[in-house]
From TrEMBL:
InterPro entries in alphabetical order: Acyl_CoA_acyltransferase, Bact_Acetyltransf, GNAT_dom
Domain N-acetyltransferase: 1-146
Name this polypeptide is given: N-acetylglutamate synthase, GNAT family
Native species: Micromonospora cremea
Gene3D superfamilies according to UniProt: 3.40.630.30
GO molecular function annotation: acyltransferase activity, transferring groups other than amino-acyl groups
Keyword Acyltransferase: yes
UniProt keyword Cell inner membrane, yes or no: no
Assigned keywords, A-Z: Acyltransferase, Transferase
């Protein structure tokens, strides 16, 4: 398994984001109906197994101190192997290298496995923020990153 940086325009990243969005729409019963595309200002990491990207996650800067984890997704056939946990750690390292002291994220109340992952990895619930404020199914989390010595 390899975790590598990929541009937002990478076709495998685009395919993973589309799969993630489709799965979210199915999980939430089509509640929001929005299809989100990749953004150029998100730095993506891909998890590559046997030459194929099987998972992705992104990091977007909210401000100098805060990075937001975006588009975390692991293809169903690769779940349960610790890939998401390793990808989240790599995204936290990327945030740290970019000078962020806090990483935050949003997920849905209908995704208990995601909530379990984030809380197990040290994320604490925070008030819903930004574009998620008016979504009754959004829950947000944050984690303070270690300070450089």
């Amino acid at each position: 398994m390899l975790i590598e940086s990929r541009p937002a325009t990478d076709p495998e990243i685009a395919a993973l984001v589309i799969a993630q969005q489709r799965e979210l729409r199915e999980a939430d019963g089509g509640l929001d109906g929005q299809v989100t595309v990749t953004h150029d200002d998100i730095r993506y990491l891909a998890v590559v197994v046997n030459g194929r990207a099987v998972a992705c996650g992104g990091l977007q800067s909210i401000d100098a101190a805060t990075g937001e984890v975006k588009r975390m997704y692991v293809r169903p056939a690769y779940r349960g192997r610790g890939i998401a946990r390793q990808l989240l750690a790599a995204l936290e390292e990327l945030a740290f290298r970019q000078g962020h002291s806090v990483v935050c994220l949003e997920t849905g109340t209908y995704l208990p496995a995601a909530i379990g992952l984030y809380t197990a990895c040290g994320y604490d619930p925070i008030p819903v923020y930004g574009e998620y404020v008016h979504n009754p199914y959004s829950v947000c989390f944050a984690k303070r990153l270690p300070v450089a010595a």
